[in-house]
Amino acid sequence: MSAILKRETRAYFDSLIGYIFLTAFFAGSGILFGVTSLQYGSTDMSGMYSGLFFILLVLIPILTMRTLSEEKRQKTDQLLLTAPISLTSLVLGKFFAAMIIYSIGVCMTLVYAVVISFFGAVSWLTVVGNVVGLLLLGAAYIAVGMLISSLTENQVIAAIGGFAATLLLYLIGTVAEIIPVQWISKILSELSFATRYNPFTYGVFDFSNVLFFISATVIFIFMTIRVLERRRWS
Amino acid sequence: MIEVRNLVKTYGDKHAVAGISFTANDGEILGFLGPNGAGKSTTMNILTGYLSSTSGEAYINGHDILEDPIAAKKEIGYLPEFPPLYLDMTVREYLCFVYELRGCRLPRNTHLKEICELVKMDNVIDRRINNLSKGYKQRVGLAQALVGNPNVLILDEPTVGLDPKQIIEIRTLIKKLGKNHTVILSSHILSEVQAVCDRIVVINQGKIVADDTADNLSRELTADHKLIARIDGPKDEVIKLVQTIPGVVSIVADMQRERGVWEYNIEAVEGTDIRRELNRRLMSRNWYILGLRSSELSLEDIFLKLTMGESVNEFLADKADDLAEHYEEAEK
Ligand SMILES: Nc1ncnc2c1ncn2[C@@H]1O[C@H](COP(=O)(O)OP(=O)(O)OP(=O)(O)O)[C@@H](O)[C@H]1O
Ligand SMILES: [Mg+2]
User: Fold this and answer.
1) What residues form DSSP beta bridges with B210?
2) How much is the ipTM here?
3) Nearest C-alpha to atom 19 of ligand 1 is from which residue?
4) Rounded distance between C-alpha atoms, residue A188 and residue A172, angstroms
5) Which CATH class is domain B226-294?
6) Do the chains contact at A233 and B52, CB–CB below 8 Å?
């Protein structure tokens, strides 16, 4: 796994995707920070963190679009899949590489917290809650993006598909509200990424939400592994 | 050692591999010979665990590739049909990655250096793979298969895209590697597998049509009775003369190569050697043979020969007739 993790992390920066992602992340969070906290002179950063939710919808698919589609297209998957490593360590290696880049982005939001701390008291507990929530949300999105990337050889399709999938997971909550059947609506809203994520931005640290994102991540990673395994049999 | 039993791979209702069994022993170079779409790459992809077989078993040094893939894959170095290269890496970075990926224990720098010297690419080690020529990319692919000194080498068309000098170098290298590795290589060139391999497995449409030592197969497949001769002499009379030689089935003038010198395809009854008689008769008329060689069987002929057995001669005679007609028309 470490070989893949290392190569992938490097590849993010060799192929510029890493820089593009981080720049866009920094710019996006900066703008959000400007129009929420700075404009109102508030030390409450939840505006930025809840806004980042939407930015991730676009940015995470960019991060994950190449992970598996490009290997298939360039036929380098033949090297990886015939190497003496398990599919799990292959997928996890790629997952954690994306997580590393993503975490760098998330850590950059701490810069704004530091900026604010010069002007007033920052509720660091809330900030930590936000960062943890953002990491969990990102992990689940990365797993979704990788799943989509494993389904195609075309990175553009992988990016668009990833965007559609993450958007869908977000919209589940909205759909839930318009579905009249109570129990379906209830289940769907339980599954909504937005409903699960928002409490983190208020600084509410609900363990069931943590568990939700971790399980979602595990499930999507597992499905990615299954896709690769199935392709062998097709 | 590689053992394969009854390997089948189907795509929908198409049999890409339809029940292949063979064994490759230690220190043996086994050649897969077959036309496009025969199932060579598919078989190799199954042996290396890239694809799963629909049914059948494959063992690499005793490890079942399906049951115990990681142990089996440790034993294999694989050069796929398209070398799996990361184009944005340098050769050194790439080989280091493969080294780590395969969990090698050998001293890294000396080991990689040895490999680069072996495949003669130590001069490009710090170049980006993207900027290498096709032949050098192929070498990087080969080098990648050698990382970690695996016992078993599976090479899918290793010489494709190389220039003649490189082809000879790589063949020599493979022969050298074959002394202490089990090697399987595929090719659609008969002379290539004849030159390199100890044993040849001929595959057509997913089935094995022959499995024999290279020597035996070569004997069976060479066409001493089919000659290509370059003769200095008047064309029509030469043809008339040669036709009277006992055993000659047909003679067709091919092309005028030099002034007054024509190239002829001469076919005799299988098993007869007409070369001496040909010489004698032409000499008596003061015509000269300027070149004489046996014509190589094309892959198509080989499969016909292997799959059709007796009826082949008839077929070849027909073919010669077709050819003659073709040339007649061409002359008009
Ligand atoms: N993914 C696939 N789906 C459907 N058919 C396939 C697939 N892969 C291979 N085939 C078919 O299986 C057969 C064997 O293909 P394979 O690539 O093994 O041939 P080959 O002997 O390596 O040929 P070549 O000399 O052209 O490399 C071909 O008829 C091919 O069309
Ligand atoms: Mg092939």
Assistant:
1) B202
2) 0.91
3) B37
4) 6
5) alpha beta
6) yes
CA distance A38 to A31: 10
Gap between the Cα atoms of B141 and A102, Å rounded: 33
Cβ pair B54, B9 in contact under 8 A: yes
User: What Cα–Cα distance (Å) separates residue B29 from each residue in B99, B144, B209?
Assistant: 25, 19, 18
We find that the CATH architecture of domain B2-220 is 3-Layer(aba) Sandwich (3.40)
Do the Cβ atoms of A3 and B101 come within 8 Å? yes
Q: Is the beta carbon of B80 within 6 A of some atom in ligand 1? A: no
> Are the Cβ atoms of A85 and B52 closer than 8 angstroms?
no
Alpha carbon nearest to ligand 1 atom 24, residue: B36
> What would the DSSP string read from start to end of A91-141?
HHHHHHHHHHHHHHHHHHHHHHHHHHHTTS---HHHHHHHHHHHHHHHHHH
Indicate left, alpha or beta for B295 from its phi (over 0: left) and psi (-120 to 50: alpha). Answer: beta
- Residue at B223: amino acid letter: A
Calculate the CA B105 to chain-centre distance. Answer: 34
Q: Which chain A residue has its CA at the smallest distance from B104's CA? A: A84
pLDDT in 10s for each residue of chain B, 332 residues: 999 999 999 998 899 999 999 999 998 999 999 888 899 999 999 999 999 999 999 999 999 999 999 999 999 999 999 999 999 999 999 999 999 999 999 999 999 999 999 988 889 999 999 999 998 999 999 999 999 999 999 999 999 878 888 889 899 999 999 998 999 999 988 788 888 999 999 898 899 988 888 777 766 666 667 888 899 989 889 999 988 888 888 888 888 888 888 889 888 887 778 888 899 999 999 999 998 887 766 666 666 666 655 455 565 566 666 666 766 776 66
Q: Measured between alpha carbons, how far is B208 from B221 in angstroms, rounded to an integer?
A: 16
Q: Residues, chain B, total?
A: 332
> In this structure, which ligand is nearest to the CA of B36?
1
Closest CA to B114 of B183, B29, B179, B177: B177
Q: Do B2-220 and B226-294 share a fold?
A: no
CB contact under 8 A, A78 and B78: yes
Ligand 1 nearest-atom number relative to CA B34: 21
Q: Confirm if A57 and A142 have CB atoms less than 8 A apart.
A: no
Candidates A79, A80, A225, A226, partner chain B, best to mutate (most B CBs within 10 A): A79
Ligand nearest to C-alpha B37: 1
> Which residues surround the ion ligand 2 when the cut-off is CB under 5 Å?
B 40-41, 81
Chain centroid to CA B131:
28
Chain A residue closest to B54 (CA)?
Answer: A233
Q: Which of B11, B154, B185, B208 to mutate to test the pocket of ligand 1 (most atoms within 8 A of CB)?
A: B11
